[in-house]
Amino acid sequence: MSIPFDYETMRLIWWTLMGVLLIGFALTDGFDLGSASLLPFVGRTDAERRMVINAIGPTWEGNQVWFILGGGAIFAAWPYVYAVSFSGFYLAMFLVLSALILRPVGFKYRSKKPDPAWRSRWDWALFVGGFVPALVFGVAVGNVLQGVPFRLDSDMRSFYEGTLLGLFSPFALLGGLVSVAMLVLHGAGWLTLKLEDGPVRDRAQRYGQIAALVAFVLYALGGVWLAMGDIGYRVIGVAEAAGPSNPRMTETAHAAGAWLANYGAHPWMILAPLLGLAGPLVALIGIRGRKDALVFGGSSMANLGIIASVGLSMFPFILPSSIDARSSLLVWNASSSHTTLFIMLLVTVILLPIVLVYTAWAYKVMFGRITTRDVNLNPDFY
Amino acid sequence: MIDMAVVELSRLQFALTALYHFLFVPLTLGLSFIIVITESVYVITDRPIWRDVTRFWGKLFGINFVLGVATGLTMEFEFGTNWAYYSHYVGDIFGAPLAIEGLMAFFLEATFVGLMFFGWDRLSKRGHLLTTIMVAVGSNLSALWILIANGWMQHPTGAVFNPETMRMEVSNFKDVLFNPVAQAKFVHTVSAGYVCASVFVLGVSCYYLLRGRHMELAKRSFTVAAAFGLASSLSVVVLGDESGYALTDNQQMKLAAMEGMWETEQAPAGLTLFGIPSNSAHETAYEIKVPYVLGLIATRSLSGEVAGIVPLVERADYRIRQGVIAYDAVEKLKVNRNDLVAREAWERHKSDLGYALLLKRFVADPRQADDATIAKAAWSTVPNVPALFFMFRIMAGLGFFFILFFATAFAFSVRRRFDRKWFLRTAVLAMPLPWLAIEIGWLVAELGRQPWAVDGVQPTFLGASSLTTTQIWATIFGFTALYGVMAVIEVKLMLSTIRHGPEVYEGSDGEPTPERARATTFTAIPAE
User: Fold this and answer.
1) Residue at A179 is within a domain
2) What are phi and psi of B276, to 5 degrees?
3) In contact, B39 and B48? CB cutoff 8 Å
4) Residue A286: which domain range?
5) Burial code of B361-381, b = ≥16 C-beta within 10 A, e = fewer?
6) Rounded Cα gap, residues A141 and A147, in angstroms
7) Which residues of chain B does A97 touch, with a Cβ-Cβ cutoff of 8 Å?
């Protein structure tokens, strides 16, 4: 088979697609995680909580597939990343998975019994299912930025030398809090669009304002930390962009401040962090000025900008090793083969537009605000 | 050296989570199509009873579906968490079907399942039927892709090892896609799911018939399940044979082990009905054989030989020795990519590299292995023969039982005889059987693959992540506790939904009102 793009281009495309999938996950399932984190606080009675649950009930399951697909696509396109990160972050992954497992069950089973104790337990399960992943994803990103203590031997077997508690460094916790604030804001943005005017929506917006401020301040602080702190990696010599996927053929080194070097070399990249800073402010203006579309638009901008800025800052790094100069995973040394990348691109180009069309249709069918009347009368509601 | 405790615990966890996941998936696969059938009848006939039937099974479908999704999350990431070296080694091939599964199947079923439950008053009748069909197609497509992935582990075609990246890479994606083992496995597995759902629907219907409750729903569901179940149970057995046929080229050892056949027999080989095989004595005692049958089934000819375990071990011994040459070449290429002598040796022996890796269980460097170690490694290619022998017979026996069972049900439904108590009771008692057959089927397929993670390519013990036993024990306890609690809740909700019976929406005929339906929940009405 002749492949119309060279290996370097294919790797760039798949690096971009990985970003698209992660951002797609944050933009869609992100508001489900955020809404679930808000659930016990914005809804005080069962009817109020049911408004929140039914605002995400019909569509959250499709949104979650972005996460599953993210896992599958990283496996297919970046097998080193899949193998090293998930086995390295072993117990953290377990935490995320068991929290996420609570969601499908929580949404479905909560409504099966009217018993208040039963329902309250599921509400807290749903809270855990939203809050814990939001936190751990951010902590994981913080760790990736700091470098992960793993090494590859000559067979490419990965050995992780960190501990579970080691994951919670101050910088990683900052990452976790940015992630929680960003997703809570996004949840508030969704509830703003989806709920009728009333106490639940008002409370969601109040929490949204706090989240917007926290996201803005902590994200900015993260940027300052990258500039002043002892964080960053760089490639030594030249990494062959079309070379074999063998991380031991490239050498990398710890270099303070290196994560900001790309913005000097490629000034257009500064758009991403600007978007990340502007997004929470736009959402805040939307809440204060009662412009619903601005709230959700702003929270989406925040997600897009913050996630894109992490990827762009680190380029071409995907997973730097903090303990071994010849193990870091780069765009140029950690991908699948040229053939697999091309086949997967074909599949994605054909299938992703179809997915987007029917997803849009599903949202259209479920269009409209959730009202107290619906919650009381519609037998299909959770 | 490899820590075998880590490997065994990783296998235990994978088996537990996969077997648990597979309690819910088969019912999803089959029930989704049964709902498509009943809803189609509703759209065509416009009789509200069929809508009630659809919504009732839909409710049970929903309770089951969410646990399939929840436990599927674990599976998607477990290769990375617990089988990191496997993921690195074959991710270039194995990752693709998993990603395509997400794009093609999971999005479809997950997006439409929301509309299926929330869309009753927002979609036209046809529009709603379309969403139900999409859920069924989506869940069945996901089975297709995961079995393409699994089929490749059983019969790895279309891939070669690349010494520069130390992993397998795709050489021909079409071979991966149209792998005959994958196709046979797909049809066999989804048919088993249809059987499972048919037994479930039939069992619940018979429970209602015995109690004299919800008769309209029960008779209709009985009829649908009997027909669907008969077709599916025939398909499972016929296409189960098809996957045995495919084995003769690819996984001869699995077939020999399932049959407890130690020596190659004169063709056509006989089929062993019963015996007591022993892994240590290398023989099967007390055999009862039907002459010729195995040879006929497995090779579709009178002259085709079915290889026995002992000759297959001898072949493994030879391939290990060839593999050591390949292993040596790879080690030299690691030091110098341009070593021409090593490159040439590699090209000649590369197909046996996986066999040399079997030695790593006994020596750190396969090149240091002596004859005794090689013999030990060759014998390690024999899976657990007694386990496979007996489990295969239980599974196949159940398969034939289902054909008989559904043929009887079908005959009764054609003659509209819904009052044969002995059959109704049998149908209720038979409800756990498809799950038993399916879980055993998974064990036969995957234990039969041992010691390989990927047949002839990577031994299972090399695939595990570099974890500690403490870490794995922690997650085994965690998953067991979480899954255990969810299983209890799920079964309770299923039972209470069944006891409660169908909701009746306005405009129904032939069924009691919701109040009466609810009242009957707690008062047993004597059977007719």
Assistant:
1) yes
2) -125, 95
3) no
4) 15-336
5) bbeeebeebeeebbbebbebb
6) 10
7) 73-74, 77
pLDDT at B332 over 80: yes
Contact present, A307 and A26 (Cβ < 8 Å): yes
**Residue ranges of the alpha helices (H) in B123-274?**
125-154, 173-177, 180-211, 215-250, 252-259
Please tell me the distance in Å from A162's CA to the nearest CA on chain B. Answer: 11
Partners of A254 in the beta sheet? A233
Residue A351 lies in a domain: no
With vertex at residue A12, the alpha carbon angle to CA A11 and CA A15, rounded to the nearest 5 degrees, is 85
How far is B363 from B340, CA to CA, in rounded Å?
A: 28
Which residue type is seen at B131? T
**DSSP code for B105:** I
Q: Give me the mean pLDDT over the B484-505 stretch.
A: 90
Residue of A nearest to B96 (CA): A76
Q: Please indicate whether, in this complex, the C-beta atoms of B85 and A347 are within 8 angstroms of each other.
A: no
pLDDT surpassing 90 at residue A155: yes
Please name the member of B66, B98, B497 whose beta carbon is closest to the beta carbon of A75. B98
Using the CB atoms, write b or e for B214-240: b if 16+ within 10 Å: bbbbbbbbbbbbbbbbbebbbbbbebb
| Distance, CA of A358 to CA of A350 (rounded, Å) | 14
Across chain B, mean pLDDT equals: 90
- The predicted structure's pLDDT at residue B286: 78
CA distance A180 to A328: 28
CB contact under 8 A, A97 and B77: yes
Give, in order, the Cα–Cα distances in Å from A205 to each of A192, A201, A282: 7, 6, 13
Cβ atoms of B388 and B284 closer than 8 Å? no
Could you tell me if residue A113 is inside a domain?
yes
Q: Do B170 and A244 touch (CB under 8 A)?
A: no
Taking all residues of chain A, what is their mean pLDDT, rounded to a whole number? 95
Question: Is residue A110, in this structure, part of any structural domain at all?
Answer: yes
CB atoms within 10 A of CB A266: 11
In chain A, what residues touch B100 (CB-CB under 8 Å)?
A: 72, 344, 347, 351
What does the pLDDT read at residue B506? 52
pLDDT tens digit sequence for B352-391: 999 999 999 999 999 999 999 999 999 999 999 999 999 9
Peptide bond into B451 cis (omega under 30): yes
* Domains: count for chain A: 1
Residue A119 is encoded by which pair of tokens?
A: 């329902």
pLDDT tens column, B48-78: 999 999 999 999 999 999 999 999 999 999 9
Please report, as a single letter, which amino acid is at residue B402.
F
Considering only the beta carbons, identify the residue of B67, B92, B165 that sits closest to A246.
Answer: B165
CB atoms within 10 A of CB A13: 17
- Name the residue with tokens 């002749």: A2
Q: Indicate whether B516 pLDDT > 70.
A: no
Helices (H), chain A: 7-42, 46-56, 60-77, 79-88, 90-110, 116-146, 170-194, 199-228, 261-265, 271-288, 292-314, 338-365, 372-377
Say if CB A334 and CB A245 are below 8 A apart: yes
pLDDT digits (tens, 9 = 90+) for A56-114: 999 999 999 999 999 999 999 999 999 999 999 999 999 999 999 999 999 999 999 99
Cα(B431)–Cα(B490) distance, rounded to whole angstroms?
16
CATH of the domain at A239: 1.20.1630.10
The residue whose two tokens read 């990603």 is: B99
Question: Any residues with CB less than 8 A from the CB of B250 and at least 6 apart, and which?
Answer: B154, B155, B181, B455
Question: What is the distance between the alpha carbons of residues B409 and B357, in angstroms, rounded to a whole number?
Answer: 52
How far is the alpha carbon of B234 from chain A, nearest alpha carbon, in Å?
A: 34
B153 confidence band (pLDDT: 50, 70, 90): very high
